[in-house]
Specification:
The protein has one domain. The chain is mostly helical and 330 residues long. It contains 16 helices and 4 strands. It is 55% helix and 2% strand. It has helices spanning 19-29, 42-61, 66-92, 100-111, 119-131, 145-151, 155-163, 165-170, 184-204, 206-220, 227-233, 259-264, 273-279, 281-284, 293-302, 324-329, and strands at 11-12, 244-245, 289-290, 312-313.
């Protein structure tokens, strides 16, 4: 893994992404992990409960002072929205229902309190991320070069990047090849989102809408939860391009911190990801992992050695996620 000396650039690897080959080796020795594949239909109930809870909180904060609404968004709303993001992620892998269309409907429902329509597009880009991790022209999880240069290494630049993370993500799709920006389900997502947003604004009021918007930005940005995006693929430890988080926030984040396990076995639903680690501790405990998203957030912001260029890119497309067929048929 190399980085061009004396210039701002990503680390380059001539090797394939590590997950497919590691998963095959694990399955060769631990075939019982296949039994963890499947779906968790209870995730749909969680979607319904969390959407109702977040909408109800939006109604409650519409009657409190502005500062109290912002505090509620940071302390409560961000966590609810982040959990809904994890459930959208589950739907993207078809880990809730057997039918793809039902998973998309559940994802659109989970997307409602987020104010911006993104569930269907996320599925498209996220599955490409799994298949072509680190390929600059195909992986939307990689920051754009102009984005990394603009943000730089200053604490202020990185903090602002985290604060406006969803906006920066919107700028990435045009650079990606082989990905259709629009399909019929995208318009369904947009229509449902617009209807929800207008209803919140008209029925609950502007302050309720603001609460939802701020909760959304905190859930993926300048918040301990936002460190998840750094944890997953930033080179905090040079040479390891995917890292897991095994801290207490996994309880409210539905085990999303188990990111090496998820990339190795994307057909395993959120409630069984810890079982993957427990089955092969000699593999996952030997890898570097994080115990605190808060400490990671602070380190990323203030450590000038870390920047948006602290990512691995490759030209080798590599292998698609192992057992992709098993995932579709499970």
């Amino acid at each position: 893994m190399t980085q061009p000396p004396g210039q701002a650039e990503f680390f380059f690897s001539s090797e394939r992404e590590p997950h497919a080959l590691r998963a095959r080796e694990i399955l060769r020795r631990h075939a019982e992990i296949r039994s963890l594949a499947g779906r968790n239909a209870w995730s749909a109930l969680l979607v319904a409960l969390l959407v109702v809870a977040q909408t109800s909180l939006a109604e409650l904060v519409s009657h409190v002072p502005f500062w109290a609404a912002l505090c509620a968004a940071f302390l409560v709303g961000a966590f609810l929205d982040h959990t809904l993001w994890v459930l959208i992620h589950e739907c993207a892998h078809n880990l809730v229902f057997r039918r793809a269309s039902w998973n998309r409907i559940a994802a659109i429902a989970a997307n409602l309190p987020h104010v911006l329509p993104s569930a269907i597009s996320f599925q498209t880009y996220h599955l490409k991320h799994h298949a072509f991790q680190g390929v600059y022209e195909l992986d939307a999880d990689i920051p754009s070069r102009w984005e990394a240069r603009l943000v730089g290494r200053s604490a202020l630049g990185k903090a602002l990047w985290l604060l406006f993370f969803p906006i920066f993500q919107i700028t990435r799709p045009p650079r990606l090849r082989e990905i259709r920006l629009f399909e019929p389900w995208v318009f369904v997502n947009i229509g449902a989102q617009l209807a929800y947003d207008v209803a919140v604004w008209m029925v609950l009021g502007p302050k309720a809408f603001l609460y939802l918007a701020v909760s959304f930005f905190f859930s993926v940005g300048l918040h301990p939860l936002g460190a998840r995006w750094i944890q997953e693929h930033y080179l905090v430890l040079e040479g390891q391009e995917t890292s897991s988080y095994y801290g207490p926030l996994n309880v409210v984040a539905l085990n999303v911190g188990h990111h090496n396990e998820h990339h190795d076995f994307p057909f395993v639903p959120w409630n069984r990801l810890p079982a993957v680690r427990w089955a092969v501790p000699e593999v996952y405990d030997a890898l570097f992992f994080h115990r605190s998203w808060t400490l990671l957030l602070l380190r990323f912001v203030f450590d000038r050695r870390l920047s948006l260029f602290s990512r691995t890119i490759r030209s080798e497309r590599g292998l698609k996620a192992v057992l992709q067929g098993d995932s579709a048929a499970a």
